[in-house]
């Protein structure tokens, strides 16, 4: 990764902040890419962005608690290994300095992870599940470094591993390959109380999704995030209570909103 005592291009992308990579992340209120309830744009090196992307996904997906032999274990709706492998491989196989950016979009029904540059193989992504074809590695130095840095589990077989992990977890997925980039869509499993009915306005939907993330948000907090006045936010909260979507637990000062 070093040439003439300086980082080469791969080294800069991996470890330097002088030529940062851009990552766009957003959480949307509905399955349409219109109304978002959270948005972040981060510029950093690949090593840091992998951790940032993972953390962002973990903060905005569902978790369940499993009790085994008296031990409490929190389990994400999508296997951790699949998320890490996908994110790391997307940085390993991207085309850098292109016209598009790395992007993660989280919707109620699915999550998309996108990297600039077409799929790095002449074969279809689905064919790698059968293990019939050799791996194509676009950025060999980046991929090898991520493997040695424990960011990729198995060098040269990441997509097959992801497909296996998602299939074993009974999670549906699809691949989209275009001239601009490669995108994986992971379909989320529907859980009780995790879908939004159509009797809500856009503002009410936004607020409900915010309260799913943090029930301690105040009307002032919500108004800032959705770009509405506190009065409008308070009125919409009242409608959600009236429609029995949320219920106040505790007092106004120390209480929180519970999703019904």
Notable traits:
6-stranded mixed sheet, 260 residues, alpha+beta, globular
Task: Describe the protein's architecture and organization.
33% of the residues lie in helices and 25% in strands. With 260 residues, it is of the alpha+beta class. A hairpin with a 2-residue loop joins strand 1 and strand 2 (6-7). The relative contact order is 0.12. Residues 192-198 have low confidence and may be disordered.
Oligomer: single chain
From the helix content, strand content and strand pairing, which structural class follows? alpha+beta
Adjacency order of strands in the biggest sheet: 4-3-7-8-10-9
Distance between the termini: 53 Å
Pattern of helices and strands: EEHEEHEEHEEHHEEHHHEE
Number of helices: 8
Compile the SSE list and pairings.
Blueprint: E1 2-3, E2 6-7, H1 9-15, E3 21-28, E4 36-44, H2 46-59, E5 63-68, E6 71-76, H3 80-92, E7 102-106, E8 110-116, H4 140-148, H5 158-168, E9 173-177, E10 181-187, H6 202-213, H7 219-226, H8 230-242, E11 246-249, E12 256-259
Parallel strand pairs: 3-7
Antiparallel strand pairs: 1-2, 3-4, 5-6, 7-8, 8-10, 9-10, 11-12
Helix pairs in contact: 2-3, 3-4, 3-5, 6-8, 7-8
Task: Characterize this entry briefly.
With 260 residues, the chain is α+β, with helices and mostly antiparallel strands. 33% of the residues lie in helices and 25% in strands. It has 8 helices and 12 strands.
């Amino acid at each position: 990764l070093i040439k003439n005592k300086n980082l080469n291009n791969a080294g800069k992308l991996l470890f330097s902040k002088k030529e940062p990579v851009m990552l766009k992340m957003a959480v949307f209120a509905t399955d349409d890419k219109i109304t978002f309830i959270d948005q972040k744009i981060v510029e950093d090196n690949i090593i840091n962005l992998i951790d940032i992307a993972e953390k962002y996904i973990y903060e905005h997906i569902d978790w369940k608690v499993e009790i085994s032999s008296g031990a409490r274990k929190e389990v994400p709706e999508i296997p951790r290994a699949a998320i890490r492998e996908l994110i790391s491989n997307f940085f390993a196989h991207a085309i850098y300095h292109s016209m598009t950016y790395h992007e993660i979009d989280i919707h109620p029904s699915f999550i998309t992870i996108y990297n600039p540059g077409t799929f790095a193989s002449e074969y279809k992504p689905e064919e790698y599940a059968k293990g019939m074809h050799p791996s194509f590695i676009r950025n060999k130095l980046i991929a090898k470094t991520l493997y040695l840095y424990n960011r990729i589990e198995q060098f040269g077989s990441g997509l097959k591993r992801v497909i296996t992990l998602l299939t074993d977890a009974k999670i549906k997925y699809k691949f989209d390959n275009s001239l601009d980039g490669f995108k994986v869509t992971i379909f989320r499993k529907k859980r009780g109380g995790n879908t939004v009915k159509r009797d809500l306005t856009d503002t009410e939907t936004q607020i409900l999704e915010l309260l799913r993330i943090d029930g301690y948000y105040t009307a002032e907090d919500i108004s800032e995030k959705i770009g509405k006045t506190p009065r409008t936010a308070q009125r919409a909260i009242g409608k959600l209570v009236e429609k029995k979507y949320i219920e106040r637990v505790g007092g106004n000062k120390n209480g929180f909103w519970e999703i019904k």
